[in-house]
């Protein structure tokens, strides 16, 4: 199978590339390296296992690579919810506009299948928890969530108009090695600068689901292999949640620190667009045979160990 991975030099994308290469796929990576790094792919580049194009999806010069592709894994995006509030037009361009351009390239080159990484933030402050894919109306409270929901809408339109297949994955918080943002990464960075004090955004009671990145990649490929045709949406996450204060406890313990003073910025949200409570129903993915083998706390411990080693 010939697979294109946009954002393949990034956090989740590079782990997906690892797995696709292992599975003997022909892999082309398209990434502008604005948030990713070729260091994440170096062993594949050295071995000649992948083709790499350093291109911005908002520009040109990459579309011809879609010719003959069997599936596009579209992961390229601005990944940070907080940053989308500071620069919404940047997020709209890199998330929504880039997705439309990927869809148009698929249509022009007759690529039959797409995998798109969306987000739990499309649900906004959901009143039903665990939240199923059928929940509505969808009302994102962040620019990031809005760009992903708009992208989902265009993917649905292209699938129905041009007879494409697509799996849209609404992720919980995915964590692990090669990540360069998120709560675990942020706590480690802060504690390396000051091992005595830790600033925690919000009141520390925000409770969310977390899943380690290797389990996430397993979920994507498992569900893809069994998914019905057409436009399909699946939640991916663990079946439990953990609050931010507990994450701080795990990180400080993993770093061997004692008597760290926590300082809370206050409020129920850690930042503009933060969803304080998030737990996804994953029954649909489980119905296709995928089951998470790790929970939120185990995922956090594994992610912290990997980040510290990295």
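^ Assign residues to that structure.
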């Amino acid at each position: 199978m010939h697979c294109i991975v946009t954002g393949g030099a990034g956090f989740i994308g590079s782990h997906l590339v690892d797995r696709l290469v292992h599975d003997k796929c022909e892999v082309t990576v398209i990434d502008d390296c604005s948030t990713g790094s070729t260091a994440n792919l170096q062993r594949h580049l050295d071995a000649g296992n992948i083709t790499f194009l350093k291109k911005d999806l908002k520009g040109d010069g990459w579309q011809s690579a879609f010719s003959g592709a069997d599936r596009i894994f579209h992961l390229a995006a601005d990944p940070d919810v907080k940053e989308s509030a500071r620069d919404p037009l940047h997020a709209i361009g890199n998330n929504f506009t880039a997705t439309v351009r990927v869809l148009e390239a698929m249509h022009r080159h007759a690529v039959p299948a797409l995998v798109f990484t969306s987000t739990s933030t499309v649900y906004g402050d959901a009143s039903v928890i665990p939240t199923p894919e059928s929940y509505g109306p969808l009302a994102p409270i962040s620019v990031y969530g809005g760009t992903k929901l708009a992208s989902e809408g265009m993917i649905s339109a292209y699938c129905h108009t041009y007879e494409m297949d697509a799996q849209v994955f609404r992720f919980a918080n995915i964590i692990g090695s090669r990540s360069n943002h998120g709560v675990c990464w942020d706590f480690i960075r802060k504690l390396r600068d000051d091992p005595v004090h830790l600033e925690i955004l919000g009141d520390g009671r925000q409770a969310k689901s977390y899943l380690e990145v290797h389990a996430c990649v397993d979920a994507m490929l498992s569900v893809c292999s069994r998914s019905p045709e057409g436009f399909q949406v699946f939640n991916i996450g663990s079946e439990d949640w953990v609050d931010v204060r507990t994450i701080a406890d795990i990180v400080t313990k993993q770093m061997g620190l004692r008597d760290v003073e926590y300082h809370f910025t206050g409020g129920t949200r850690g930042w503009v667009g933060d969803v304080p409570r998030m737990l996804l129903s994953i029954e649909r993915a489980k119905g296709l045979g995928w089951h998470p083998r790790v929970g939120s706390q185990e995922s956090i411990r594994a992610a912290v160990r990997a980040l510290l080693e990295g």
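The chain has two domains: 2-174+210-236, 176-208+240-282+295-309.
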